[in-house]
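DM from R.C. (forwarded with permission)

"hey, sorry to bug you on a friday — could you get me a structure for this? deadline for the figure draft is monday and I only need the backbone to look sensible"
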Amino acid sequence: MSQIKFIADWRRPITFASTCVLALSLAACGGDEIPDTSSSSSSSSSSSSSSSSSSSSSSSSSSSSSSSSSSSSSSSSSSSSSSSSSSGTAGRYRVNAQGRITENGTVFPAKCGAWFGLEGQHEPKDAESNPNGAPLELYIGSMWWVDGERSIDKTMKEIKALGINMIRLPITPQTLEAANEQGMTRVWDGTAKNPNGRLKNKASVYPYANARTAMIEFIKLAKTNGLKVMPDIHSCSNYVGWRKDVFEANPPYVDATRVGYDFTREEYSCGGGAANDHPYNEAKWLENLRDLATLANTHDNIIGIDIFNEPWGYTWEEWATLSEKAYEAINAVNKDVLIVVEGVGSVLKDGTPVDHGEEVTNPNWGENASGFKNRPLNIPKDRLVISPHAYGPSVFVQGHFMNGNCAELEGDEAAEAGCQIDIQGNAAVIKAGWEEHFGYLRDENYAILIGEYGGNMDWPQKGVREAEKEMWSHVTNNPDQAWQELLGDYMIEQKIEGCYWSINPESGDTGGIYTHKYDPVSAEDAWGQWGEMDTRKTTLLKRIWSGVGSN
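My reply, with the result:
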């Protein structure tokens, strides 16, 4: 788990940890907030990791994080409706018989990146403006203290020129509320600071009155730039963020007892279990899905809806039933968009294990769809996209990245034991895990879109908190870059597409396609300043896109 030390002032962020880890012991998880200490957080055993988002200016950090669905193979899956070979009704976006996404019958090679912030950030408790808030604002590299201006349109044109043609857009139920105060009013009006302000982007490039308007205008501008958009319901609340396990999420959360960590959310819930409750349930979730599907009737560049991020608190049976209800709700309103379904986790919040096949490899949150083998989804195969999340050591060090006795350890325990990370030496095991968790479905001609993958290619030497850098100082072989290259090989072999996490660089444990001039050790005053694109990442993406192709 990465916590990033910062020096707080009201103007700029501190940064957070975007790692989420769930283990049988549920020891720790990090995510949409910015820790203010350099103490390490404990990991839990046999955990699933997820990468999420970032920090904010004097305040924020957002989550993003991550893993998605897949499963083990079975002959029974070929007989289900989600597995059904029969095509449903005609529509703009479909999956063909080879498992490729199409638009009006022509293969649409999904070259996707995530762009986050609208799902909610996390302000420090001592922020002068909006203390402990959860502002609903996209990261665009133009916070009011940053020299120069970067517009959303400029970034869209640049990523389009790179080759990206699709954006995964994390949101929360509050993003859809035009009157939600966390998506309104500015910290800086050009002349003075507003202690009740929440938004930090410059009004000249981010003129939106509320988060819902910002989302809709983003979708419209994306269409102008030839980009598809896939909204993702990322949590039950902009305050609870990545911690949620189910719709009605309640504390204690996995980061409740994290040492030296000021960004817990124990006072917030979605199920009535905390003083500040943001009630959420199946009915409200389905209404949010219908809302998005209705928007897609007007904005036809909405290619699909990622129905709920990392639902690790459900069994596969429970999640399959909910996913089928999501399809029914969306299809009743819109028969064009794709239904994007993530998987579950490896253990429930109460410690109950969830089957994920061989124990040697542990899936990320949302990566596990092995239950599909015996309980396929009753969703037309030509509307269904399975969307696992996959991350390497910069997000969380899994046991199957290491050898010998170290294979029994993970996270901070492995660091303290001086373990080396050997991605190439464990390549066969790592690939076998991907195949068991989701890849086999590609062999059955399901559409697979990895909903999140990416990482800090300089980990653990650069771009990490000082304590983490010291803890892993014995690792000098850039293991996360090796992990990403291995996943790229696998995606090419299996013709699997994906959404890179992330386009913007404010994700604390992964960084972005754009570089961040901020560094938690050497450049604490550069928060929010974007640099050029990371050519190592763009080279990897181009290799994947070329290798997967459009056939």
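R.C.: lifesaver. The two ends are 39 Å apart (CA to CA).
me: no worries. The mean pLDDT is 85.
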